[in-house]
Design goal:
heterodimer, A: Rossmann fold, elongated, B: alpha/beta, 2 domains, 16-stranded mixed sheet, 6 helices, globular
């Protein structure tokens, strides 16, 4: 499947480094994406309300929709824009690639609110990729996988997250080295 | 107007009214080396002809349009800088016009000048002088349509403190050939915005020169162009900073698609010893959409004083940014639509800066129409 086919099938990838697209407004971009995913353009009146609500939930200003996609955005704005898309494009499953990296604590809370809002629909799923356990204070994982050198080294419940917080990744890294 | 022999640029021949001073180009000259001479040979060699463009001017009464008698352009117009301009001046037996906008006139609605060619079997030569009075405010939109083989001169004499926007839209038929010299003489403290939007024609070569009559003037020159298969589009910009504390900006963007689509952008700036405290920046960006295209971009700075605020330029030619396309596609947008959005974005900024609402939609629609040729008709967003 091509990248766009996957997206239309319901997969979302929140980028670690969202790309700037000069001259394409956020409003235009969101509408084009939603149109592509639904196979028809959203009804104008409800759509504007929906966009405003999603941007507001991510603490993004009113004029945000008029700015060019990711151009001149701060690191936090880029990530919050990704979360606004997560809400508006209603994918079935989302991969969040280090969405928490580079965020201060306030932005982290805002981003987490977005993810939790998305997960209120229990049919949806998220795979959150992170180097830190900090975000797990705001987003409750049902499963935790430790991924080392391209392999899942351990799988557990939320308690594994807490254990990692206390002990770090060292033993997994050592084990991987020993096996290498 | 330029005094003959007054240009100190090493890149430009000496202006002259005499055709003998502008021999037939071979294609090796600095100012002709990118031009397909063959396409322009008829215009560069023919004598006076009877062919004319159809003119229609939509303007309020205070704007005067008059026909100029033989020889009069000589006193009012910029001295020809190349053979194209010289031959248009020499052959201007009729068809010379003067457009006058009175001092302190504030004209809100754009003045539309529609020019239609009626055939390309014979060359058309014309000379136009536009005099804009001091402190006047106006917008002029010149549109070219139809089929023609045209050599022409425009001289804009802009009075002190005037604020003007001058837009040229080339929507020629596919077989049109168009060579022009356009001169802007900026009075003290003027604010001048110019734009070239070039889409049609087989071969188009616009030489645009700007100079200053006094300090304090602010010039912004914008351009958008879209070259298709076997189309030649050439914009030559020359800004002569011949007065202190003057400002110039040049920003041209173009797309190319189809075999042997060729664009040329020359951005020359001369900063004379007298031009202290000036500020200039020139930029050209090209987006190549298919194989087999050629975009030439040559910025040149001739700096004769270092006592200036700034002088810079940049030129780039590239293909689609794979990361931009990936990002858009990862949101479900099909590849063709993603390309369309990126091209749209590429031009949007310039079209917005031209700032003439009446033609913004027209230009974006034209860009869409050009894009449909490569990307296919199925790429339009379904409307509600």
């Amino acid at each position: 499947m091509t990248v766009d086919q996957r997206a239309r099938a319901g997969l979302f990838l929140a980028m670690q480094y969202p790309v700037e697209i000069p001259g394409v407004s956020v409003a235009n971009f969101l509408r084009a994406a939603r149109t592509a995913i639904d196979g028809q353009a959203p009804k104008l009146r409800t759509w504007i309300k929906e966009v405003d609500a999603a941007l507001e939930r991510q603490d993004l200003d009113d004029d945000f929709a008029d700015r060019s996609v990711n151009e001149g955005f701060s690191g936090g704005e880029k990530k919050r824009h990704e979360m606004a898309q997560l809400e508006l494009l209603h994918p079935k499953f989302a991969v969040l690639d280090e969405t928490d990296s580079g965020l201060d604590i306030d932005a982290l809370k805002v981003v987490s609110t977005g993810v939790n809002h998305y997960l209120e629909d229990k049919s949806r799923g998220v795979m959150l990729i992170t180097h830190y356990t900090r975000i797990l204070r705001y987003i409750k994982a049902t499963q935790v996988h430790v991924f080392v050198d391209g392999r899942v080294a351990e799988t557990g419940g939320p308690e594994l997250g807490e254990q990692l917080e206390a002990e770090g990744y060292e033993k997994y890294v050592e084990a991987a080295k020993a096996n290498a | 107007m330029t005094i003959e022999g007054d240009v100190e640029s090493h890149l430009h021949p000496r202006p002259s009214w005499s055709l003998a001073d502008h021999p037939m180009p071979t294609g090796r000259e600095e100012i002709w080396r990118f031009t397909p001479i063959r396409e322009f040979t008829p215009i560069l060699t023919e004598g006076p002809t009877k062919a004319r463009l159809e003119w229609s001017v939509t303007a309020p009464e205070q704007v005067r349009v008059t026909e100029l008698a033989d020889g009069v352009p000589h006193d009012l117009a910029e001295t020809p800088q190349d053979r194209m301009s010289a031959i248009a001046a020499a052959n201007a037996t009729t068809g010379s016009r003067k457009i006058e906008i009175p001092a302190e006139a504030e004209i809100e609605t754009p003045i539309d000048i529609d020019l239609v060619g009626t055939g390309s079997s014979e060359s058309v030569y014309q000379n136009v002088v536009v005099e804009i009075g001091h402190q006047a405010k106006a917008t002029l939109v010149v549109r070219y349509k139809g089929s023609a083989r045209l050599g022409e001169n425009w001289t804009f004499r802009i009075g002190d403190g005037a604020e003007v926007t001058i837009v040229f839209v080339q929507e020629w038929a596919d077989d049109a050939v168009h060579g022009a010299q356009i001169a802007f003489e900026l009075g003290r403290d003027t604010t001048v915005r110019t734009a070239q939007a070039t889409f049609g024609g087989k071969a188009v070569r616009i030489s645009q020169a700007a100079s200053y009559q006094g300090p304090g003037a602010d010039l912004m020159q914008l351009g958008v162009y879209f070259a298709d298969s076997e189309q030649h589009i050439e914009h030559r910009l020359f800004v002569d900073h011949n007065a202190p504390r003057t400002k110039s900006r040049v920003d041209f963007r173009g797309c190319l698609q189809g075999a042997e689509a060729h664009t040329v952008w020359i951005g020359d700036v001369l900063i004379r010893p007298v031009a202290e405290g000036i500020d200039t920046y020139e930029s050209n960006k090209n987006l190549v959409l298919t194989e087999g295209c050629r975009a030439d971009a040559v910025p040149n700075l001739e700096i004769q004083t270092g006592n200036i605020l700034g002088a810079g330029h940049s030129a780039s030619t590239g293909r689609f940014d794979a990361e931009q396309l990936f990002y858009l596609q990862s949101r479900g947008i099909e590849e063709e639509e993603a390309r369309r959005l990126v091209v749209h974005g590429f031009f949007t900024d310039i079209v917005r800066r031209i700032g003439v609402e009446e033609i913004s939609t027209e230009l974006m629609d034209r860009i869409e129409a050009e894009l449909l040729e490569t990307l296919g008709a199925a790429t339009r967003l379904p409307e509600e």
